[in-house]
Amino acid sequence: MKKFFKIALLVIIAILLLGTFVFLYQKSKPEVVVYEIVSPSINDLTKTTVATGKIEPRDEILIKPQISGIIDEVYKEAGQKVRKGEVIAKVKVIPELGQLNAAESRVRLAQINNTQADTDFNRVNKLYTDQLVSREEYEKSEVTLKQAREELQAAQDALEIVKEGITKNTASFSSTMIRSTIDGLILDVPVKAGNSVIMSNTFNDGTTIATVANMNDLIFRGKIDETEVGRIHESMPVKLTIGALQNFTFDAVLEYISPKGVEENGANQFEIKAAVVVPDSVVIRSGYSANAEIVLERANKVLTVPEMMIEFSGDSTFVYVLTDSVPEQKFDRVPVSIGMSDGINIEVKEGVQSGSKLRGAEKKE
CB-based contacts of 168: which residues, under 8 Å, 6+ apart? Predict the structure, then answer.
């Protein structure tokens, strides 16, 4: 019985040793790598760049008052359309005390002179009727009276302007009525009734009453990197995609490239502008974020392979061509001449044909 157990133990040990040997042998064998086989194909390649920016009107007009004062009424709000000359708001003038006193004093003096001139004219007129003074004296008195009346009217108008910013005779040309200078859409009305406003002068830009723009004339304004700015030019076609309108693509034409770059995050960026073509059925709002895709280079019907299949070694490029697949795959390293790339596929000018079998990515088990 003891002999049987000894034999069984020896057999088990032998099996374990043999299994260990087989396992180590299998592990020591080199693993056979199998690659996907890819053939070159004829494709169209385009190399593009994308500029980020915004959609905005070509011109935004800032409507400013021609007189300082307080907003009395606001007749329009953002989002409404206006015509040229249409009233947006009304300004109430707050007179300056010194100017008001001077204007009132001028009116009082003009009234005194007018009263005196009227009295003198009546006296001369009676004497002229009685033929006691010459016609020349009569005419001089008449002219003096007219001048006094004109001065009184001018003084009263000046007082009205100081008080109200307007006279009865010039109501239609009132500077207190803030009017749009163009046809367009009101983008913003940053003031409310009761706000103080000042007119534009040499010391400040004045208060903006409203921002008006023609939304039928839109542009894309963005920036492009200096590494690509030399490959674009005015009149190039541009494709726009707008984040808020994901189901639409808009055509545009590049019309401006800044001659001066601006450094941002360590790279020089150049401003570009493109005129946007907007269908009548689509509404685009000012400030929409957008991406502009510009085609830098194009190659039609060329032989291409995935760029990941190209081996770069110094100034040379190579691919691996299948020579045998039994019992395992074998490849030859072949030099090739390459052309443009779109980042995924690359043009192969020389070295392989459309029927060549090339080593691709490693197959996963």
Answer: 160
pLDDT at 176: 78
CB 176 within 8 A of CB 166: yes
What are 84-94's pLDDT values in tens digits? Answer: 989 999 888 77
CA distances from 264 to 213, 229, 231, 268, 292 (A): 29, 15, 20, 6, 19
Q: Please, are residues 56 and 286 in contact by the beta-carbon 8 Å criterion?
A: yes
Cis peptide before 335 (omega within 30 of 0): no
Q: For the CA atoms of the chain, what is the radius of gyration?
A: 44
Domain of 325, in residue numbers? 35-45+300-362
Helix (H) or strand (E) holding 349: strand 345-350
Tell me the CATH number at 153: 1.10.287
| pLDDT tens, position by position, 307-341 | 998 999 888 999 999 888 777 888 899 999 999 98
Q: What is the count of structural domains for the chain?
A: 4
C-alpha 129/C-alpha 126 separation (Å) is: 5
Q: Which residue has the tokens 């002179």?
A: 113
- Which residue matches tokens 């500029």? 51
Say yes or no: 83 and 193 in one domain: yes
Same domain flag for 67 and 207: yes
